[in-house]
């Protein structure tokens, strides 16, 4: 009997299938005319059609079970994506050794076919399919929604098949034996499609059998209850009949359990360690389901061990399926006693999986461990530290554990009074929880990030953290009135919690350094956020001045700076927005604090807070602006008065710092800074001749730089570094001063470093920054990794100081070429600094920056050529040709916008062509330019040329090569061939390698005496291609007169 993949149901079941599909379609309100369908096609028609067709298949099976079984066999083979042929032969005995020796799986390379012969008793099946089947996507792994949909429908088919057969043919010892044999053999195939599809079918078949076994168990229990009732009525005949029924049901359940055991041992035990991760995931997912649904048979240590072993799988999805399966077990309290041995054996592994590199696995493991008291207090203490995790889902899960175990179980202190109002009870409850939270935070000595702790608790403990009335009342209460109160450290932490909760309510869970937060809020979340902002503004606008004026505040700048952040989150559309008295009190208290605190954190926070309050859209902007202007004017008046008297420099410095911090935040330089600057310089000019002092200042600057230059060669390494940093900082500050003030007014201040000093600074950078581990005379291998990191930090500071000189125009931009040389070699250590300098110089002058890149590549190439010609020992500063080419490729990646950097890229090509061919005189001794191989490096920039520019650059190349005799058949001209190919291939949209081979075989230069002869002997197709390459010069040169619409000329 031979069945093709599309004929298996088109005989006796065709009529039944048509009627079934019509009946299913009628139940959905639609009459559909469908021709004869296969079982495989039924999968695509939905569950209702599936049930009807399976019912008709069962009727056909009762009539002719062999033919129907072959239909079912062909169905599973088709679901595997196999479009081959199935041949069936009858087998008389399973134990025939001659038959078993024929069960093979092999391929025939001559015919291009694969064969698999296996026993599905009473059939010997032979499946033949093409050899490339394993490389084709079969239905289960197809991308998009079809693959997911087929997976669901295929699983439904297996479950519906068992459900419809459970009362009839499933116990005939023929259907299930053949089906299990088929799935066992195909799941053992080396073809992935067979193995994956049939393993899924087998485990889903076992799951369906579990449902049947559960149904039989319920029937046995009901029968047992009925038997007990009948025994009390002493009806002997009914009791015997009930015993026979109960025995029959028990035998059926035993038969089902036998089938499950065969599938588990024959398929699961072979496939749960399959090389394919999808198969391992399927096995673990279904195993967890079996143990939960049918715990009496599967929830034993002999089955649990597979779950524990596969938690060490290298694929995250497999580990995730194990954790999800265990969640269902640990979440069912009656099952916990059976998990004691498993918990003691695999607890360490579950604890370590909270640090899994896959975030979802870590989160689900945390949920598993928090499901019940399965760990010791020490283990829970370790898990609670995950509230500081950088992954928000994991931190939020740890926050739930913290809230449920420490905060939600805290009881308030018992009150001596018999009667206590509800508000006071709530306050005591909140105070007790906050005390527990403060204790947990103080015990966590490794973490000092309150904002992350608040974010972790926000989802589960938001009501506690948003109780701003209780938080502020605790901070404002007198320690003598209600016990000892809070210590200063606890007050500081509680203030940080208050500020963090305000920020969280106003801005949401987006935190720097923490990923996984929800980025888009829905309408309900936006409404909640608006309500929270209104509540916090109404309350804190009135209470915050009291907090700022509290007795303990003046002792701590950090607490003051934290509290002064709160107004930045106020909502201007709240009912309290019109309360100008509260806003005036707040600004007045802030001004009083600025008179007492001069630390940078307090000043910067106050500047940002004033900026927020003075916004044009706020209701209190007029009051806040008046307070700000009054504060700044007060400082200006004080500074003006102090400049006329002999006072301490420290006082003037403090006032100037306060003023400029506020000025930078509010951009006040257009009004008040002019007044202050004129007052300061009026004092300076009135004290003497300003020009003479400026000349003296420049002389001092020159002397300082000369002394610093001498110290660059000092024997002490630290002295050399400090001298270099001092010179760089002074020159950078002087350059910034020239940019701020008008150069025409202060000409004597102008100072340019001498060439000697510039060379000394560059040499210092090359010798002390770009040093490898084998070149560093001060080797740090014995001093440990910490010393190496410290040394790297110092070298990064040295390089950054030198780069500032170039960015600020103190040094010529061409000096950056020496730094760019090390971009690839020291990318891990200094790549970010060098790239930033590259972008900054490009903002200053694109063309000059591109010339610097060209200079860098050409200098490296010249050094390499000289080293090769000398034949001496390789110098450490000389890079290989491959490194130079890689450096050019990295430079190319920095040119993102082709139109924006068009002129720069053209200039790079022009300079490269001139570098190779200028001043080259061809002689028999030197037939090629000495720097010809530079064209290979230059070809890295060809991809950044626009199409018309490529033609123009090619024309420019032809102009320089026309004077020389070039034979592209010779190997020495290979770089020119490659460069031409990069221009032509990209211009035509083809591959450069094909043009290289084309050039070497077909391109013949105009001066070659063999060109005409070779061209005449070429095929017409090759003649056209060669003629195109020969005449490309004419076509490019004519673009100026006959330009297309998309052609733009670039002047070279």
TrEMBL record:
GO terms for cellular component: chromatin; chromosome, centromeric region; cohesin complex; nucleus. Residues 268-353 form the SCD domain. GO terms for molecular function: chromatin binding. It comes from the Eukaryota. Its main location: nucleus. The keyword Cell division applies. It is found in: Nucleus; Chromosome; Chromosome, Centromere. Belongs to the SCC3 family. Component of cohesin complex, a complex required for the cohesion of sister chromatids after DNA replication. The cohesin complex apparently forms a large proteinaceous ring within which sister chromatids can be trapped. At anaphase, the complex is cleaved and dissociates from chromatin, allowing sister chromatids to segregate. This is Cohesin subunit SA. It comes from Sander lucioperca.
């Amino acid at each position: 009997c031979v069945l093709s993949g599309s004929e298996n149901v088109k005989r006796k079941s065709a009529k039944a299938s048509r009627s079934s599909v019509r009946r299913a379609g009628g139940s959905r309100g639609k009459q559909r005319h469908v021709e004869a369908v296969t079982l495989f096609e039924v999968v695509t028609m939905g569950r209702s059609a599936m049930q009807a067709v399976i019912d008709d298949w069962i009727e056909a099976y009762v009539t002719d079970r062999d033919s129907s079984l072959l239909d079912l066999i062909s169905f599973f083979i088709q679901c595997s994506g196999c479009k081959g042929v199935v041949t069936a032969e009858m087998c008389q005995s399973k134990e025939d050794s001659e038959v078993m020796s024929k069960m093979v799986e092999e391929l025939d390379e001559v015919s291009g076919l694969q064969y698999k012969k296996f026993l599905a008793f009473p059939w010997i099946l032979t499946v033949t399919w093409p050899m490339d089947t394993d490389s084709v996507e079969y239905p289960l792994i197809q991308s998009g929604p079809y693959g997911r949909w087929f997976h669901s429908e295929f699983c439904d088919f297996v479950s519906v098949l068992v459900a419809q057969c459970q009362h009839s043919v499933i116990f005939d010892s023929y259907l299930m034996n053949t089906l299990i044999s088929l799935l066992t053999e195909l799941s053992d195939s080396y073809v992935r499609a067979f193995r994956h599809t049939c393993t899924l079918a087998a485990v889903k078949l076992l799951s369906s059998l579990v449902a049947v076994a559960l149904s039989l168990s319920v029937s046995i229990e009901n029968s047992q209850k009925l038997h007990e009732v009948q025994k009390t009525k002493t009806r002997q005949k009914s009791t015997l009949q009930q015993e026979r029924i109960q025995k029959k049901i028990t035998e059926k359940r035993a038969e089902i359990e036998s089938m499950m055991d065969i599938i588990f041992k024959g398929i699961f035990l072979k496939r749960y360690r399959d090389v394919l991760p999808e198969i391992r995931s399927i096995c673990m997912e279904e195993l967890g389901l079996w143990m939960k649904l049918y715990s009496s048979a599967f929830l034993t240590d002999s089955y649990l061990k597979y779950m524990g072993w596969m938690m060490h799988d290298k694929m995250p999805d497999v580990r995730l399926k194990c954790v999800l399966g265990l969640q269902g077990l640990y979440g069912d309290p009656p099952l916990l006693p059976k998990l004691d041995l498993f918990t003691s054996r695999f607890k360490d592994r579950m604890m370590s999986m909270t640090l899994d590199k896959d975030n979802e696995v870590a989160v689900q493991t945390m949920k598993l461990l928090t499901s019940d008291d399965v760990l010791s207090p020490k283990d829970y203490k370790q898990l609670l530290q995950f509230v500081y995790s950088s992954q928000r889902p994991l931190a939020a899960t740890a926050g739930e554990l913290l809230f449920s175990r420490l905060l939600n179980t805290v009881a308030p202190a018992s009150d001596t009074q018999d009667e206590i109002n509800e508000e006071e009870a709530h306050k005591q409850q909140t105070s007790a929880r906050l005390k527990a939270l403060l204790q947990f935070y103080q015990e966590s000595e490794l973490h000092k990030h309150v904002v992350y702790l608040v974010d972790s608790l926000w989802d589960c403990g938001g009501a506690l953290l948003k109780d701003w009335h209780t938080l502020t009342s605790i901070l404002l209460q007198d320690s003598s009135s209600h016990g000892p109160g809070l210590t200063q450290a606890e007050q500081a932490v509680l203030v940080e919690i208050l500020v963090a909760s305000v920020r969280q309510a106003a801005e949401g869970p987006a935190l720097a350094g923490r990923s996984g937060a929800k980025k888009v809020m829905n309408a309900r979340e936006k409404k909640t956020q608006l309500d929270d902002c209104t509540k916090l503004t109404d309350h804190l606008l009135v209470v915050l001045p009291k907090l700022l004026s509290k007795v303990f505040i003046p002792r701590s700048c950090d607490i003051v700076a934290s509290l002064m952040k709160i107004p930045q989150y106020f909502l201007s559309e709240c009912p309290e927005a019109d309360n100008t008295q509260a806003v005036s009190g707040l600004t007045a208290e802030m001004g009083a604090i600025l008179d007492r605190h001069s630390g940078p954190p307090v000043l910067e926070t106050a500047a940002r807070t004033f900026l927020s309050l003075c916004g044009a859209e706020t209701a209190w902007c007029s009051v806040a602006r008046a307070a700000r202007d009054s504060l700044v004017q007060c400082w200006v008046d004080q500074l003006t008065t102090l400049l006329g008297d002999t006072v301490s420099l420290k006082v003037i410095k403090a006032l100037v710092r306060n003023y400029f911090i506020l000025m930078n935040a509010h951009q006040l330089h257009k009004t008040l800074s002019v007044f202050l600057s004129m007052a300061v310089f009026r004092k300076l000019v009135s004290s003497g001749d300003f020009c003479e002092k400026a000349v003296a200042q420049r002389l001092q600057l020159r002397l300082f730089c000369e002394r610093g230059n001498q110290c660059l060669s000092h024997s002490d390494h630290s002295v050399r570094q400090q001298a270099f940093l001092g010179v760089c900082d002074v020159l950078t500050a002087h350059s910034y001063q020239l940019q701020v003030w008008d150069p025409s007014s202060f000409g004597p201040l102008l100072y340019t470093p001498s060439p000697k000093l510039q060379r000394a600074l560059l040499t210092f950078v090359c010798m002390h920054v770009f040093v490898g581990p084998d070149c560093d005379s001060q080797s740090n291998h014995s001093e440990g990794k910490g010393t190496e990191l410290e040394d790297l930090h110092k070298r990064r500071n040295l390089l950054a100081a030198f780069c500032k000189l170039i960015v600020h125009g103190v040094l010529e931009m061409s000096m950056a070429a020496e730094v760019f040389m090390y971009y690839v070699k020291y990318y891990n250590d200094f790549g970010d600094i060098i790239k930033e300098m590259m972008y900054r110089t490009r903002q200053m002058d694109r063309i000059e920056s591109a010339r610097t890149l060209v200079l860098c590549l050409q200098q490296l190439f010249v050094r390499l050529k000289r080293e090769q010609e000398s034949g001496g020992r390789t110098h450490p500063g000389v890079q290989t040709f491959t490194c130079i080419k890689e450096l050019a490729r990295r430079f190319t990646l920095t040119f993102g916008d082709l139109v924006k950097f068009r002129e720069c890229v053209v200039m790079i090509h022009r300079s490269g062509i001139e570098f190779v061919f200028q001043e080259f005189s061809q002689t028999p001794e030197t037939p090629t330019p000495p720097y010809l191989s530079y064209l290979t490096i230059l070809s890295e920039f060809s991809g950044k040329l626009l199409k018309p520019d490529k033609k123009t650059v090619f024309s420019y190349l032809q102009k320089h090569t026309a004077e020389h005799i070039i034979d592209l058949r010779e190997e020495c001209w290979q770089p020119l061939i490659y460069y031409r190919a990069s221009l032509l291939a990209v211009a035509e949209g083809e591959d450069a390698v094909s043009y290289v081979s084309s050039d070497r075989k077909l391109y013949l230069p105009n001066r070659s005496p063999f060109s005409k002869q070779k061209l005449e002997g070429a095929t017409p197709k090759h003649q056209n291609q060669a003629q195109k390459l020969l005449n490309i010069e004419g076509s490019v040169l004519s673009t100026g007169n006959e330009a297309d619409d998309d052609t733009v000329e670039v002047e070279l």
